[in-house]
Amino acid sequence: MKQLIKKLYASSVVRYVFFGGCTTLVNLISFYVLRKLRVGLNMANVISIILAILFAYVVNSRFVFQDKCQTLADHIRPFCKFISARLMTMVIEVGGVWLLVAKLGMNDMVGKFATQFIVLILNYVFSKFFVFTTGKKNSKEN
User: Fold this and answer.
1) What are phi and psi of 44, to 5 degrees?
2) Taking a C-beta distance cutoff of 8 angstroms, is the pair 35, 44 a contact?
């Protein structure tokens, strides 16, 4: 069993799916709590996405893509690229939730959940090929 877990953990896709699931939980749970506190739909959505983005940067940098940043200064460029990419998918998510819930009458949690699939795929592509590249060029040369 231990070998299977190590083998699965060796794959960045498996790690991304696991930590992406955790990030999605942060997003959905914070959205649910904010809606129960009667925070407006768009405000609750934006706040929950921001919380998920911050959580996602930490776990993606450290555990998923195992970026080689060693100092705080090393994190500045990937963090800015990560935020830029996530802002693009946030627009898709906010627009998608608004469309599904406000215009098509879908339950807010179902609409929120439905948009997660598109966002999850886009976030992986952006993170793998655009954001977490520190140290990868050097390791290919060695």
Assistant:
1) -60, -40
2) yes
User: Both tokens of residue 23?
Assistant: 């990030």
Task: For residue 50, give both structure tokens.
Answer: 């921001």
pTM equals 0.72
Q: Please list, residue by residue across 101-114, b when 16 or more beta carbons sit within 10 angstroms of its beta carbon and e when fewer do.
A: beeeebebeebbbe
CA-wise closest residue to 115 among 135, 91, 139: 91
**Alpha carbon distance 128, 64 (integer Å):** 9
Six-digit token string for 71: 């100092």
Contact between 112 and 97 under an 8 Å Cβ cutoff? The reply is yes
Q: Provide the residue type at 53 as one letter.
A: I
Q: Please give the distance of CA 53 from its chain centroid, rounded to a whole number.
A: 6
By the 10 Å C-beta count (0-12 exposed, 13-18 middle, 19+ buried), 23 is classed as buried
Write out pLDDT tens, residues 58-102: 898 888 887 777 788 888 888 999 999 988 998 998 899 999 999
Query: 86, 94, 69, 108: which is closest to 23 by C-alpha?
Result: 86
Question: Identity (one letter) of the amino acid at 18?
Answer: F
